[in-house]
Amino acid sequence: MIEVKRFGEKSLIIQFENIISIPVHQQVKNYYKHLLHSSIDGIKSISPAYNSITLMFDPLVTSFDALKEKVENLEIDSNTTADQKVVEIPVCYDSSLGLDIEEVAQSKNIAIDEIIHLHTAPHYTVYMLGFSPGFMYLGGLNPQLFIPRKKTPRLQIPAGAVGLADQQTGIYPSATPGGWQIIGQTPLPIFQVNEKPLVQMGDQIKFKPIDLDTFHQLKNTK
C-alpha cells in the first residue's frame, strides 16, 4: 500500500510503510525499477530512500494530479527481484584510523576485538545513497553497536572513514565534516567522479578486517 503526496511545487513523494525494514525496502526497490523503465512523461529525477521515492517533474510537461494518477496506476510485478551484488570492503580498525573506536568500546563496555567481530559479521544492505555522492546508508548493524552521533561533529573526516550513527553504519566517500563515530577506514576509493559507482541501492556490503600494514599497501596501489 502506497500513499502519493505533494512534495513541493515540482515534486511528489511515494510513501511506503513508514518503517525501516528489508521487506519495505524490497518494495521500494521494485517500484523504483518499474519507474525507471516506465514511459511516464515529465519525470526529471527519481530518488529512492528507506521507505519512500521522491519524483521531480517538469510542470510544463505534466502536473501533480496527472503524475499522481499514473504512479498510482503503475502496474507493479511483485515477483520482480532487482539485481544485487555482494561487495567486500576491507577495513582497518586500528585506533590510528578508527578515531572513535576506543571511545565506542568504553561507552558500550565491549572489547575492541568484539566490536570488530560484530561489525564485520553481517551482510549489510545498501538502503540508499546520499548525503554526499557515494555515501552509503547501510542497514543490518548489530544492535550491540547502536550508538548516537558525536555531540560535536568533526570539521574534517577522511575519505574512506567507516562510522556508526544510531542504528546505522556507513562509509564517508570523500573528506567532509561529519558527526558519525569513526571506528575504521577502508583504503578503497568509494566514489570517483568518472568511474561507475561501486554500489547501488539494494546491493550487499561485507566488511573484511585488515591490519595497518595491509591498509597502507592497498592504499598505495590505488
Task: Walk me through the topology.
Elements: E1 3-6, E2 11-15, H1 22-36, E3 43-48, E4 52-57, H2 64-72, E5 86-92, H3 101-108, H4 112-120, E6 124-129, E7 136-139, E8 154-157, E9 161-165, E10 168-171, E11 176-178, E12 181-185, E13 204-210, H5 212-221
Parallel strand pairs: 5-13
Antiparallel strand pairs: 1-2, 2-4, 3-4, 6-7, 6-13, 8-11, 9-10, 9-12
User: What's the CATH C level of the largest domain?
Assistant: Mainly Beta
Helix content: 10-25%
* Beta strands, count: 13
Average pLDDT level: 90
- The total tally of domains equals 2
Structural class, by secondary structure, is alpha+beta
Q: State the CATH architecture of the largest domain.
A: Beta Barrel
Main pleated-sheet profile: 4 strands, antiparallel
Portion in beta strands: 25-35%
SSE succession: EEHEEHEHHEEEEEEEEH
Q: Can you identify the CATH superfamily of the largest domain?
A: Cyclophilin-like
Broad shape = elongated
What's the alpha carbon Rg, rounded to whole Å?
19 Å
Q: Kindly, what is the distance between the CA atoms of the first and last residues, rounded to a whole number of angstroms?
A: 45 Å
Q: Spans with pLDDT under 50 lasting ≥5 residues?
A: none
CATH topology (fold) name of the largest domain: Cyclophilin
Number of helices: 5
In spatial order, strands of the major sheet run: 1-2-4-3
What structural keywords apply?
about 220 residues, alpha+beta, Gyrase A, domain 2, Cyclophilin, four-stranded antiparallel beta sheet, four-stranded mixed beta sheet, elongated
Short description:
This protein has 222 residues and is α+β, with helices and mostly antiparallel strands.
